[in-house]
Amino acid sequence: MHFTEELLRKAQQRNKCIVLPEADDDRTLQAADRLTRDGICRVVLTGDPGQIQASARKAGADVSRCVILSPADETEAAPLAQELHLLRKNKGLTLEAARELIKDPLYFATMLLKVGRVDGYVAGATHTTAENLRPALQIIKATPGLRTVSSFFLMVFPEAKWGHQGVLLYSDCGMVEQPSAEQLADIAIASARTFRQLVGAEPRVAMLSYSTKGSANSPDTRKVVKAVELAREMAPEIVLDGEMQADAALIPSIGERKCQGSPVAGKANCLIFPDLDAGNIAYKLTERLGGAQALGPLVQGMAKPAHDLSRGCSADDIVKVAAISAIMAD
């Protein structure tokens, strides 16, 4: 079974509920149709029920199996606005302002996630990343014990040579531009948890650098060394090592020569990049030159799963991200 098919199967077993707030978009409606028709997850759409149903008919989508909740329905919106006010009043949010904010489908959907009405959130088909993730960063926030929300890609190779049966996790490739040692440690821990959730295998986390085990000494390499120490203190159960170069992380003969006895070198399946330049360049080269399928960018380190789509996404992309969100939900 192909890895993406395995993701859909895992999501089906979980029976989670995912909110899709961009119900004015044909791709979202088509994805909602497939998600509910195939039993991948339950779906909540937000917006005016009549408009959504009319748009779905035009898009050739059946949303009869979805729950539709409207921010204009006071019975739904008022309690969420009250809760939003309580959550953000220390930031200066008045109740009146909360009532206005909850009319925004993204805030409305995020509050549904916060109060447990849904298990995950997927949007971004018609909104920028900043617009889409702002409510989640304000309301859902980072996983307890972590301070950093980051992004990751699952790189799926046509052959099983790399990572776990051809699957590698790359992070961070899309959010934290110049992570500190503390942020790198958070990213490593979140990545290990994500890999275990989605791939179902033991994560082996390599903290990457241009240096391997002290072959260079600079502020950049020392940052990675410190991140390794912090991550081990915070999560000693995770199999993690570094600093190391990418070839030492991935190729057994080089890993054994450069990092003899390492539990990670030569068999890493989670690659943690020292900065956003390295991560973003690496995933694009892996995709374009290495022939891997790149699933992402996806969000990790959030207390509840809230994911961002590319505005160029397809309905099929939305289905996959909703499935991932369902798997990542508690």
Summary of the model, kept short:
With 330 residues, the protein is α/β, with parallel strands linked by helices.
Write a structural description:
- The mean pLDDT is 95.
- The chain is globular.
- Helix 3 (49-59) links the parallel strand 2 and strand 3.
- Helix 2 packs across helix 3 (49-59) and helix 4 packs across helix 5 (95-101).
- It is built from 13 helices and eleven strands.
- It has 330 residues and is α/β, with parallel strands linked by helices.
- The strands form two sheets. It has a six-stranded mixed sheet, with helices on both faces. A five-stranded parallel sheet has the order 3-2-1-4-11, sandwiched between helices.
- It folds into two domains: 3-141 and 304-328, Rossmann fold; 150-295, Rossmann fold (3-Layer(aba) Sandwich), CATH 3.40.50.10750.
Keywords, separated by commas or semicolons:
about 325 residues; alpha/beta; Rossmann fold; 2 domains; six-stranded mixed β-sheet; five-stranded parallel β-sheet; 13 helices; about 45% helix; about 15% strand; globular
Strand content: 15-25%
CATH class of the largest domain: Alpha Beta
CATH topology of the largest domain: Rossmann fold
Largest sheet: number of strands, sense, barrel closure: 6 strands, mixed
Number of strands: 11
Arithmetic mean of pLDDT: 95
Helix percentage:
40-55%
How far apart the termini lie comes to 25 Å
Would you identify the regions where 5 or more consecutive residues have pLDDT less than 50?
A: none
Rough shape?
globular
CATH architecture of the largest domain: 3-Layer(aba) Sandwich
Which strand order does the major sheet show? Answer: 8-7-9-6-5-10
Radius of gyration: 21 Å
Number of helices: 13
Count of individual domains: 2
- The computed structural class is alpha/beta
Order of helices and strands: HEHEHEHHHEHEEHEHEHHEHEEH
